[in-house]
Each structure stands twice: as structure tokens, then as C-alpha cells.
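User: Please predict structures.

Assistant: First:
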Amino acid sequence: FNQKTMSNWIQTGLSLAESKKAIILLHGRGASAESILSLTSYLDLADFSVFAPQAAQRTWYPYGFMASDEGNLSALNSSLRQVSLLVQFLNENGKAPEQIYVMGFSQGACLSLEFTARNAQKFGGVIAFTGGLIGENLEEEKYKGDFQGTPILLSGSAHDMHVPAQRIHDSAQLLQKMGAEVSLSLFEDELHTIRPEELTWVNQQLFL
């Protein structure tokens, strides 16, 4: 894997000229682009270009993902724009939306879902490890487009103190309503982590 750093993202895996697909990896709160890239050794990404953007001050938005919308608004808009610019860069370099995958953990999982639901179209796939759509309440009018059968995988703990299972379920329902093929897998532990079973599941569902 050759690795190069752009203005605010790291690129690794195949070059865009060589790859068939691209994946965007979004890190969790307090983490880094480098840390989320450690997932690549567990995922079957042999024919992918891999991109990991870095959040300003290591956080995509300051408060919890279900906190009052005003508090998160400015930082969240900036983070959504950062992902949008990266997708635009991929489009300009020959990757159609259906060749683009978005994957995140925790805060990054929430951002993955929020970005793709606000720009719903036929993506390659969306993977949210421990996350849901962002907002004090789920407001359907914020989201537009049609996922056209995009596979979206949601997973995490049924008892996570930061990410209520109910919000994961509600997000899954809304995404399904928007045309996504949603798969949901919740574990009976209380861990805020990515489990080996989740990585195996994603490999089998999306990357075989």
C-alpha cells in the first residue's frame, strides 16, 4: 500500500487509475485518519483506492449525535462538505457513485449515514459501525434522493450508552424507505467497538 497525504485526507490502496472502486473511511471522535486505516488489514479491499479524511480537532461535530441541532450545526455542515468534496474528487477522477463506498465508526458512522442520506443515490455500499442518522429528532425532510438498492450495513451493540439501539432501528427504517437494502446486526454486549464478526460480516456481504 503506497500512502500519500492530500490537504486533509490520506490516500492508500490502489491509485484511482488502477482501482475498480473507492472507499471513504470516517474515523470516530478523538481518533484520526491513520487509526481508521488500520481496518484495511481486516477488509477485502484489494481492488480499492482507500481514502481517510481527517476531522478538524479530531471531531466531526462537538456534541453527541442526538444533541440539539444548533450546537452541532456549523461543525457538522463543515464535515459534510469535507466528505462531499472528496466524493466530488472521486467523481472527477472517474469513479461513479456506484463505485464509491462510505464506511465509518461511531461519530464517523453517523457522518457516513448522514452524508449518504442527504445525497441518496446508487452508492457501492454504506457501512455504519455503531451509528445512526444525526439530529435531536429524525427529520425525514432533511433527506432526499433514492438509494436505488444501495446496500447499507448497520451494526453495533444493542446496549451502547452513546448510540441508542432505537435510533439505529429508526435510521434503518428511514434508509429503507429511501430505497436502500438495509442489513442490521446488533450484539448483546455493551462494547463501543468494531468486532471481528462485524468485519467478517461486511467482507461477506459487500466485498466478496
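Second:
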Amino acid sequence: MKARLPLSASLRLLLACLLLAGAVASAPAEVRTVTDPAAPRALPADGPVSVDWTDPAKFSEIRYSGNRWEAERGDWVVQLARYLRQRAAARLPAGQTLDVTLTDIRRAGNYESWHGPRGNDVRIVRDLYPPRIELRFVLHGVDGAVLAQGERKLSDLGFLQDATRLDDSDPLRFEKSLIDDWLRREFPAGGRPGG
């Protein structure tokens, strides 16, 4: 029978540190929330369209959610802002610039807590939970003069009836469709801004 050598205190401490370091390295990265104070509140400047947003903690999506913690998860505000910038830039004539501020977002669907713990983190999409986006915008001409500006409240009560939806696997497809509809109305191709 082999004799067991006692571990010195420093060796035990070293082993404990190595085990802890391995556990930390294999732990999943912390999920960022849209309400994280360190999260951006604007897209980096790039091209003719700038997009920023007010505090997402005050958005209807968070304040009236059936599951605030799930509603806060991810970077969906940044994703919508990037989509808006890309789609708007494609509609602007050369030299024009557009500044957009997202002031409120309510995503399609909601969390229905009465389904119990197993369904509490599932977004249920029904026609009584339509997507809504509120924004302010200023369109500038080549010379910097204001061509159009205003506040818009976007919503689509028939959002589930549209068969021409974007990718059905995109969780933001209904909100992106709202953005596309607004851009088509507000900035018709080859025309003057609408109202």
C-alpha cells in the first residue's frame, strides 16, 4: 500500500485557483441586456443615416412586459437601429442625411405569465400584441437645410395577416416590417419626403 503524501497549503491553494480559473473560463458569457447602462445608446457614425435611441428601460416593451427580464435580454434595439440605418440609407438621394431617434418600442407579442414557469419565457405572438415604434426624425438636404422632420407612431394592427413577411425565423421581422413600411411612405423612391 502506497503512503499518501500530505499536500502543502500552498499546493492546495494553487490547485483551488486552477479549478476556479477553469470554471470561470468555461462559464457562459454574461448576457447583455438592452437596459445595461454600459450598452450603447446610438450607432457609431457611418454613412448618411444616424440612429440613436432614448433609454430602453422606459420603452413600452420593458415597462409593460409580462416578463421584464426576458424582454430586456439581447441587443434587439441595436439590431433594429442597424436595420433602420441600412434600409433608410438605400432610399436617400446622394448628399441627403437623416437623423432618427427611437423614442419607444413595443415588440410584437408578449410574455403570458399565466402559462406557468415553463411558458413564462416564451413570447406569444397574437394579434392583440401588435408591434409599435415611435420615433423622431430630421432629413437634411445637400446644403444642410431641413427638408422634413417630425414624430411618427408606427403600428400595424394587421401584422399577422401579411403573407409577404420577412424571414419567418427572424424574431424582429414584425418590427422590421414596420420600419420598411414607414420608409416607403416617408421617403418614396425618386420623390419628395411624404408626411
